[in-house]
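Re: that chain you flagged

S.,

Sorry for the slow reply, it's been a week of failed gels. I finally had a moment to sit down with the sequence you sent. For the record, here it is as I used it:
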Amino acid sequence: MTDAAYGLNVVVPNGVRGLAAELEPALAPFDHIRDRHTLLLKRFEGERSHHRLRERVVDCLAGAEPVDARITGVEAFWNPPAGSSPVVYLSVESPGIWALHRRLVEEFGRVPGLEGDDYTPHVTLARDLPPDTETAVGSMGSDDPVAALQERELPELTWTVDELGLWSKEYREFVTRFSLPP
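Prediction finished late last night. Pasting the C-alpha cells below so you have them in one place:
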C-alpha cells in the first residue's frame, strides 16, 4: 500500500455552490474551472489509512463547535505555491475556520507555503489563464477577466460550518464525513 494524500475540507452549502455556478460564465477564459467546490482546512501527506487519520482528526477537534463563515468577494492568487496561475477564488472570512486550522496545524504540522500564517480560507473557482489573456498583472487591458470577477457585487452569503469531509486526492472524492462537534 502506498502513502496517500488527503485534505480535510469544509463541506460548503448549496448557496456557495450556486454562487460558483452563477459565476461560471465569467470563468470561461480560464483553462481549468472547478466543478466541485470545497474549502480546504488542512492537508495531510503520507497517510496510509483514512480510517486512522479520521480518528486522529476527530480526537484533535473534540469539543469543537460549528463556526460561522462568510463569502466576502472574489480574489486571486497571482503566485500560488503550487500549480498554474492566477487562481481565482471566493474569499471566506471566518475566525472560527482560522481557529480550527490552527488547532489542526498544532497537532499535525503545517505544509509550508500553504498553511499556518500562509493559510487563506477560500473556495477555488478556476485557475490558469492562457498567456495571451490580458490581466491587470500582465498587460493593462479592458478585458481583464480577473478584475471583472473581483469587481462583481456578490450577494450576502453566510453559513454555519458544521460538516467536514476527508478528501482523497487519489479517488477525488470524500472518503468520510463528520459533523462538528465530532
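What I noticed first: Helices lie at 14-23, 50-60, 95-108, 145-151.

Talk soon,
D.
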